[in-house]
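Why does residue order matter? Because the sequence determines the fold. Keep that principle in mind as you read this record.
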Amino acid sequence: MSELAEEDRQILEYLRESVSRGESYFRSKNIADQIGLSAKQVGARLPKLWRVTLSPSGSP
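Structure:
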């Protein structure tokens, strides 16, 4: 498995922190605003992050 980009790690960190606070609904725009990316950049990365985090070979 390839190393995650810094932006990917930021997205995952944001999502994990949000879930720990009880949030369950996420929009790319809101994530992007918090970590300094565009909504398009976040949206393009989410499918890859979904596959990586569900991979049986281990999570990042």
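The chain has a mean pLDDT of 90.
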